[in-house]
Each structure stands twice: as C-alpha cells, then as structure tokens.
Amino acid sequence: MLVEFENVSKIYEHGIIALDSINLVIDKGEFVFIHGPSGAGKTTLLKLIYMDEFPTSGEVRVGEYSSGKMSRKDIAMLRRKVGVVFQDFRLISDLTALENVAIALRAAGKKPEEIRKRANIVLHSVGLSTKRHQLPPKLSGGEQQRTAIARAIALRPALLLADEPTGNLDPDTALGIFDLLIDINRSGTTVVVATHDLRHAERLRKRMIRLEEGKLVTDGGMIGVSP
Ligand SMILES: Nc1ncnc2c1ncn2[C@@H]1O[C@H](COP(=O)(O)OP(=O)(O)O)[C@@H](O)[C@H]1O
Ligand SMILES: [Mg+2]
Fold first, then answer.
1. What's the alpha-carbon Rg for the chain, to the nearest Å?
2. Measured in angstroms, how far is the CA atom of residue 34 from the centroid of ligand 2?
3. What are the pLDDT digits (tens) for 94-148?
C-alpha cells in the first residue's frame, strides 16, 4: 500500500506542533525507519498513517484512502489492512498467545476453522509454536512482542507499523525483533518502524527518515555509518 504525506501538519491542543509540513512517499514493499529524539513526532506520524489522528492541514493517503474523506467504515477497513505493533505489546494478559492472535481474526469475521489454522501458522512464523498456549505474563518480553507481531500480521496486512517495538527489550532480543520485521518485509509487507534504537537500525541499511521537532530533516541517509 502506497503511503503519501502531502504538506501534512499536525497541531495538537495548546498549539503544540507535532508535525510541520511533511512531504513523504513510502512505496509498496519498502522498509523504512522513522527516527529522531523523543517528542520529534514519530508516534504522531504513525497515528496519521493508521488514521488514529488526522492532519490539521495537508493530506495523508494510504492506499485508496485519504485522510480528507474517511467514514467510520473506511477506518475499519483500513485497520484490517494495516497491522500495528507497540512498545508495550498490548496483549490481553488472561488470554494465551494463540487466543490473542485469534481475537484479531475473529474481529474480522473469519470462521473458527480458519482462525485456528491461521493463528497457528502465524505463531509458527514468529517462532512461537511451542509457547502458543502460554499466557503473556509467562512469556519473555521478546516472546510477548513476537506474539503482538503475530497478531498484527494475522490478517496479512499490506502495511505493518511498529512504534518503538524494541523499546522494552534488551539489545540481543531487539536484534531478533528487527530480524523478524525484515523477514516480514521480505515476504512482501511494507514495514514502517519508529525507533530511537539506532545501534541496530543502522546496521540493517534501510531507508531512514529523521524527524526533529516535527520537521523531516533527512531522508535516505544512514546517519552515523562511516562510508
Ligand atoms: N494527544 C496529544 N495531545 C497533545 N500533544 C501531544 C499529543 N500527542 C503528542 N503530543 C505532543 O506532540 C509532540 C510529538 O509527540 P510524538 O509524536 O509522541 O513524538 P515521538 O513519538 O517522536 O516521541 C510532542 O511535543 C508531544 O508532547
Ligand atoms: Mg513515540
């Protein structure tokens, strides 16, 4: 799914400028890091893509959808095509890993047999087959994030967004999560990752978009990597 920002600004209450005249195109199949210091506007940029927030001015286009004309139904349809992963995993703690994945499929109206099959397949694909009947509190941080990623890709989204997905993880575990996101991208999904975890991000040599105080300051360079 093509993502386009055309002159997008987002001003929150009390005049806080979270994003300032952003122009940006993310092509189908790309892997992109959004980085920059805390408060730079990374989370806001992702929220505008899954239309949890709308621009104050300018237009965000995601596939066939435009921020200027989104009905409730359009938003629901968009959310089925865009998977989202958060720093704090956001799993339901009294449901097993498998059930956490299954509810995403159930919410989309899939049949029980398909839900069972697909939930098992995606958990296998993130390396969690043997842990599928565990409750999240019994899983490590990395395993919880893998479960959240499995849930996010269960409906085969065209686009996967991850907001600081490694923010609560130690460096080795973080590396495994980045590798998993790269694998998902290789299978055809567009992946956009907001992170300030540049140690690993740089090594992966992907497109990097840097935000500072709501402005897009660099795009494409691999900051900090010596030539
Ligand atoms: N819901 C909100 N209401 C008011 N201000 C907000 C809201 N969300 C974010 N902000 C402000 O917008 C700016 C950008 O925030 P954010 O997008 O969360 O940045 P980042 O993810 O890069 O840390 C910050 O100044 C933040 O305080
Ligand atoms: Mg953030």
1. 17
2. 10
3. 999 999 999 999 999 999 999 999 999 999 999 999 999 999 999 999 999 999 9
Assigned domain for 224 exists: no
From 206, 205, 196, select the one nearest 174 (Cα to Cα).
196
43 belongs to a structural domain: yes
Q: How confident is the model at residue 221 (pLDDT cuts 50, 70, 90)?
A: low
Q: Which of 8, 16, 193 to mutate to test the pocket of ligand 1 (most atoms within 8 A of CB)?
A: 16
Boundaries of domain holding 106: 3-219
* pLDDT at 203 (0 to 100): 84
132-150 b/e (C-beta count within 10 Å ≥ 16 → b)? bebebeebeebbbbbbbbb
Verify whether ligand 1 is closer than 6 Å to residue 40 (CB atom).
yes
pTM score: 0.95
> What is the domain count for the chain?
1
For residue range 58-91, list pLDDT tens digits in order: 999 999 999 999 999 999 999 999 999 999 999 9
For residue 17, the CA-to-ligand 2 centroid distance in Å is 14
Does residue 227 lie in a domain region?
Answer: no
Kindly give the number of the ligand 1 atom that is closest to the alpha carbon of 19.
14
